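User: For a reading group we're discussing how well predicted structures match intuition. Take ATP-sensitive inward rectifier potassium channel 1. Before you show the prediction, I'll give you the sequence so everyone sees exactly what went in.
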Amino acid sequence: TIILDQVSVDFVVDAGNENLFFISPLTIYHVIDKNSPFFHMAADTILQQEFELLVFLDGTVESTSATCQVRTSYLAEEVLWGYRFAPIVSKTKEGKYRVDFHNFSKTVEVETPHCAFCLYNEKDAKAKAKAKMGYENLGFQLQEVSETTDTKM
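Assistant: Thanks. Here is the predicted 3D structure of ATP-sensitive inward rectifier potassium channel 1, as structure tokens, for the group to look at:
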């Protein structure tokens, strides 16, 4: 028996909009938040997960109205936790754009939390600690005082 569990995964484009314009390289990525199917995975357990990430990219060539579709898939062992793509576009001192295709498909290691769940727990802990601190004076901390009914004069 083969069980198929299909989940839609939302992606974000680094250009900031949904309409892709491939005049320069774009990075399409998935934000792992509490709604992500990857939220409960961690760096040391991702290889134990059984999943295949299928990516479909559909497009239309505006000048000819020809359509194209690219499909690829990634298994758990092909996902690199804590890496990002190396930049291939840079600017020279003269302000001209330079494309370095040697970096195409290269990745660089970046500081990444062990798991998204850990990151959200850390953010929640910091937010709770910040709520007890003063806004302008970071040395000020709110202390809860129990009220008493007797007053001495």
